[in-house]
Amino acid sequence: MNRRRSTTLVWVADHAVFVALALMFLAPFAFILLTSVMSPEQAGTSFSWPTSFHWDNYAEVFERLPMLKYTGNSLLYAILATAFMLLSSIPAAYAMARIQFRGSGLLLVAVIGMMLLPPQVTSVPLYVMWSKVGLTGSLWPLILPNLLGDAFSIFLLRQFFLTIPREYSEAARLDGCGELRTLLRVIVPMAKPGIAATAIFMFFASWNDYYGPLLYTSENESAWPVSYALAQFRGAHSVDWNLTMAATVIAMIPVLIIFFLAQRIFVQGVTLTGVKG
């Protein structure tokens, strides 16, 4: 037992920095979880550990808010935006990585420039455009633009495609494959980690998006995603911090499940994405 204790202390000493960083990272989640099961009187006070556990706070959240509907709106937004992004960004990234054409360098600069452009700059003209076609008050103004590609996703996929040796695509062309068939039969299967990482980035960004739903769905409660609904709930029940934290935990559960299920391929895709120009 003494040897085991000594080994544990040595491990903690060797990884002290990482243990401290992990505790700092987990502290907010612990605070949210503990506050979510506190009584209304204790929540928001200096007492960090619940004097009694109120698991019925989660049931009360569902009674006060249609959380299932809001979660469904978020899933619709995130899944369709991710699918449309992959449908448009993969061919664009492949063309920029594999096909040599005049102006390809300028096109890459344009993609990087779009990554640096704040979304607030184009909010007014885009809102006017979507209002003229009658799609304001819904999530479609946030979903449909992904059919035209996403700058960050195109750039990330391009960098991953560049790490795949050109010999594979050249061998496919020698066998009579065109560009589309080469992309679907050769590049996409080899780029699954990078595609998965890009899809997860897009899914999380759509799930956590607040500014877009605030702009387009604020007047239509039936179209609210969980991110915007949670902010409205906090404003309507600012004193009930226990219920606010319980709603936050409910909103976090789907993305945590997705991340842990896809953690290995996500990390693999991020680490394999090179910086080759």
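The above is record 1. Record 2 follows with the same two-line structure.
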Amino acid sequence: MKNRTMKTNTRNWTIAGLALALAAAAGGWWYAKAQAPHRHTLVQATDEQGKAYWTCPMHPQVRQQQPGNCPICGMKLVKREDPPADAGTGGDREVLYWYDPMKPDVHFDAPGKSPFMDMQLLPRYGSAAGAADGTIVQIDPRMAQNLGMRTAPIKTGTFWQRVDTVGAVGVDEHRIVAVEARAAGWVERLDVRAEGDPVEKGQRVAALYSPELYAAMQELNLARDSGDTVLIDAAEQRLRLLGGTPGSGTTTPVRAPLSGYVMSLAVREGAQVVPGTPLMKLADLSRVWVQVEVPEAQAAWVREGRSAQARFKSLPGQVFEGTVDYVYPLLDIVTRTVRLRLVFDNPDGLLKPGMYADVTVYGGARRDVLLAPTEAVIRTGTRNVVIVDEGEGRYRPVEVESGPERSGEIVILSGLDAGARVVVSGQFLIDSEASLLGAYRRMSAPDNGEGP
């Protein structure tokens, strides 16, 4: 009984194994049959007769004898010429090098099989008279629409140069005066008591008792009594040098030379002073400074006399008009900025030293310049490139020289003409395809068509 059971189990396992093998063979046959037409139609060997074929820029291994779309990415196939590898040239085009489409940055001097993939190397040709521009990338319009690609025209217009920056209100240093004692004595009276007190021009701010001033006053009285004009003039001159005035008595008033505010107060009543002792500093705030810094690249836009505007969070809705008063001659080597001094009238005293401001400095207008959307420019680090739409699904990368930019627009100095349409959305996809096709190599290659 035991032997019979073992034989039955062995037969069952054998039948199961045969069934699995048959199923695997049938699945493989079905898959090969389903895939065979695709491989036969789209992936062709190198055309030994040198005929044209169609291939995908993103997938060069895809080739077919008729135009159409790439079965991998859906991109429209482009026409290429692939002469025999042993011919060395294609018509009047020279083979620059051979490459593996999966590693296009590696170049080979002779044809053969790729060391990276199980496929033949492809030739890269130099430009020839009458040959199509190899930098052209062609995309099916339906695919471009699905990708959301947008274009915009290059237009001629006026570019307003302006610098947006921040600054702080400060005292106009041209309107600061120091009040000092000219003779030895004591502060007998002080009419201002604290920093920030307002003063008017000609107002008495202090009174000094000075024996030296009193002696000079007595000398003037004696000179007048003598009637000698020379002595009178000398006595009056000495009194003025000491800061006194005729008829002031034993005390001499100290008056404010301008209207403004007390910035600092250095003495108190009863304090002893000597010639040169600072009593206080006064500042006229009817005009103030705003110090700002602008980037080095934009410093050339601004000059003395240019207009400026300032806005303050504490004064919403108000815009203050000013001018560039001075451009400092030194560049900050750390921040790479240039400092500007702006002046603003402040008759109502709304602008107080220390307030922060959002400042716009206008550098004038550049008229009749080419303007492109800023987002259309691809910055590679060594050059600036835009993708030009040539119509019918054809796109071409063009190197441009760009200028200043602001508010979503950038000045194009060279490389484009007015009216050209550039891609502003989806251009990085075309840029990557153009890189695969060697577009950037041809843009930087010498005119003799030699490869890198």
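The longest helix spans residues 2-42.
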